[in-house]
Specification:
single chain, alpha/beta, Rossmann fold, four-stranded parallel β-sheet, three-stranded mixed β-sheet, 7 strands, about 40% helix, about 15% strand, globular
């Protein structure tokens, strides 16, 4: 079974005592939206029911394992507020040891843009649309693959096969680990963006 934490190697040592995260079973975490932390990354896709919630959960697992103060949230450009993650996303992320069943979709807002230190999109189309709607966000707006150093858009699995969702979750896992590694080398998110 593929695990996002396996990409981190032996450096990963979970120590979540006192954390708001609850482990279920062997190395399984039920993810819930974090309270506002010192620094926030915002993952954005179209409907906030597949890619961005999976990226959010993956990033928050890696950040919690490293006791980082950086947390992720997610939103969608065309999202309807309050929808659950798709069954395919829930199943794919569950195979990686996470749970997004409690996720509720939300539309991208000015407030989310303002609170985010870094806004990572799943595609170049998303980046262009956000830059057009929120021009003040341009300095902190980047395509996830480009920023993580693994070029290419994250394909939307919505309505696809279980295999499409699994491929997406595994791609996001690799991107999130590369993203976290880059952030860990920087003192501040702002330094990383420039």
């Amino acid at each position: 079974m593929f695990s996002p934490l396996s990409l981190l190697g032996s450096r990963w040592r979970p120590n979540l005592t006192g954390s708001s995260h609850r482990w279920q079973g062997r190395e399984r975490m039920k993810y819930q939206h974090p309270t506002r932390s010192k620094r926030m990354i915002l993952f954005v896709c179209t409907g906030n029911t597949c890619r961005s919630p999976m990226a959010e959960a993956l990033f928050n697992e890696v950040a919690a394992a490293h006791q980082s103060d950086i947390r992720a949230e997610s939103a969608g450009l065309s999202a309807s507020n309050g929808l659950p993650a798709t069954d395919g996303a829930c199943a794919a992320i569950r195979r990686l040891g996470l749970d997004v069943a409690s996720h509720c979709s939300r539309r991208l807002t000015q407030d989310l843009i303002d609170r985010a230190d870094l806004v990572l999109t799943m595609s170049t189309v998303h980046r262009r649309r956000i830059a057009g709607s929120f021009p003040e966000a341009r300095d902190k707006l980047v395509v996830l693959g480009d920023w993580a150093g693994i070029s290419g858009d994250v394909e939307d699995p919505f309505g696809g096969t279980p295999e499409a969702y699994s491929r997406c979750a595994e791609q996001l896992s690799r991107l999130v680990v590369a993203l976290y590694a880059r952030l860990a080398r920087c003192d501040e998110i702002e330094e990383a963006v420039t």
